[in-house]
Amino acid sequence: MYRDPEAASPGAPTRDVLLVSAIITVSLSVTVVLCGLCHWCQRKLGKRYKNSLETVGTPDSGRGRSEKKAIKLPAGGKAVNTAPVPGQTPHDESDRRTEPRSSVSDLVNSLTSEMLMLSPGSEDDEAHEGCSRENLGRIQFSVGYNFQESTLTVKVMKAQELPAKDFSGTSDPFVKIYLLPDKKHKLETKVKRKNLNPHWNETFLFEGFPYEKVVQRVLYLQVLDYDRFSRNDPIGEVSIPLNKVDLTQMQTFWKDLKPCSDGSGSRGELLLSLCYNPSANSIIVNIIKARNLKAMDIGGTSDPYVKVWLMYKDKRVEKKKTVTMKRNLNPIFNESFAFDIPTEKLRETTIIITVMDKDKLSRNDVIGKIYLSWKSGPGEVKHWKDMIARPRQPVAQWHQLKA
After folding, report:
1. Distance CA 207, CA 151 (A)
2. H helical segments located in 119-273
3. Are strands 332-340 and 395-400 parallel, antiparallel or unpaired?
4. Could you give the CA distance from residue 36 to residue 108 in angstroms, rounded to a whole number?
5. pLDDT per residue over 146-159, tens digit each?
6. Residue 21, pLDDT score
7. Which residues, including other chains, have CB under 8 Å from residue 401's CB and lie 6 or more apart?
8. H runs (alpha helix) in 269-390
9. Could you give the angle at which helices 15-53 and 103-118 cross, rounded to 10 degrees?
10. What is the mean pLDDT of the chain?
11. Most CB contacts within 10 A, which of 18, 185, 347, 368?
């Protein structure tokens, strides 16, 4: 009797079943390997990210001339002297340091990065819980102490990824340097026009400081956006206690900028609504009410009113304002203003809302501001996008007033 050699014997698995089993086995093996690699890559990625945020090494390479400014603090602490002096331009090796990577690790790192971004419970989310997620950029600086001359040297090198504060989508940054708690004596860098990645390369000398007093101070750097016509806008700040720094040699740091603290406390909140009508090419701004406004007058109150500026790029197009509410820190306005804005200009448009305190005998005081556009802070951008997503519907939202 002829018997088919490929026929399955009773109880033996067929060829299709064996093939499926083999595929499942290989898939499980690959999954286990990838999981192991992902955990390893996460550790390596986290370590590399941490090292990139704060480096200790050589000073920054100067673009142009490195400048030097000095402030002398004798016993009275009154003499101030600032003078630019040409200096050296050492190379910054930290910016050029790269790691060789294989194609396999590149693939795994890219996959791991995507997993970390999609993971709802990542360490980055936990670390920033309850804080602003707005990226304020970072700054590079170095500090050291000359024991023979009793002089503290601070070098402000550069900043990266600064936020745009001007209506043209850029900023004019400069840096103020303090040795807290002393706020009387400060030094400043030059203003870098229209630059979100400025290079200053300026050196500052705090002369006549005994070492035992230096270690009691806190080095404070504040980055601001220069404004010719109004108050300079704070971008971010960095502070470092000098007793935690080895001052025997120049130490170089990269520090993330943090939101500037407002020592005067909260300025209050403003409730307003936006209504966008694309067919009419208009936006209606309704100033509804405010609460917990900062008291600007001696009597512990304010006389608030609201100014609304329509800006296109960096030009002021139109201004409107509400009535003044006498002696009221929780005023109700309920005033609406319509602005003509063509759809094609919407992306370059900013609405500035300023809460003012009316003063008969002196200049009116600014209580706080709100910038509404597609490139403002997280809360403002959300309101702007909600307005566009819901045309012809008033969209109301509370906003924290800012300096």
Report:
1. 4
2. 123-127, 211-214
3. unpaired
4. 11
5. 999 999 999 999 99
6. 58
7. 267, 268, 269, 270, 293, 294, 355, 367, 368, 369, 370
8. 378-389
9. 80
10. 74
11. 368
What lies within 8 Å, CB to CB, of 132 at 6+ separation is: 259, 377, 378
**Spatial contact of 304 and 313, defined as CB atoms under 8 Å apart:** no
- Give the span between the Cα atoms of 201 and 197, in whole angstroms: 13
In the predicted model, is pLDDT for residue 328 greater than 90? yes
> In this predicted model, which residue has the larger pLDDT, 29 or 278?
278
If one counts every other C-beta atom within 10 angstroms of the C-beta of residue 218, the result is 15
Q: What predicted TM-score, i.e. pTM, was given to this entire model?
A: 0.43
DSSP 103: H
Rounded to an integer, what distance in angstroms lies between the CA atom of residue 270 and that of residue 237? 26
Q: What is the mean pLDDT of residues 295-320?
A: 89
Q: Are 108 and 37 in contact (CB under 8 A)?
A: yes
Q: Is 42 helix (H, G, I), strand (E, B) or coil?
A: helix
**Beta strand pairing call for 233-241 and 67-72:** unpaired
Residues in Cβ contact with 307 at an 8 Å cutoff, skipping those fewer than 6 apart: 319, 320, 321, 352, 353, 354, 356
pLDDT tens by residue, 341-380: 988 888 889 999 999 999 887 788 899 999 998 877 788 9
Residue 26 DSSP one-character state: H
Are the CB atoms for 318 and 341 separated by under 8 Å? no
Determine the pLDDT at residue 62.
Answer: 38
Alpha-carbon 325 to chain mean position = 35
Q: What are the residues whose beta carbons fall under 8 Å from the beta carbon of 322, sequence distance 6 or more?
A: 287, 305, 306, 333, 335
Q: Is the dihedral angle over the CA atoms 296, 297, 301, 307 positive or is it negative? A: negative
From residue 323, give the alpha-carbon distance in Å to each of 264, 290, 302, 332, 367: 26, 13, 14, 10, 16
H-type alpha helices, 154-228: 211-214
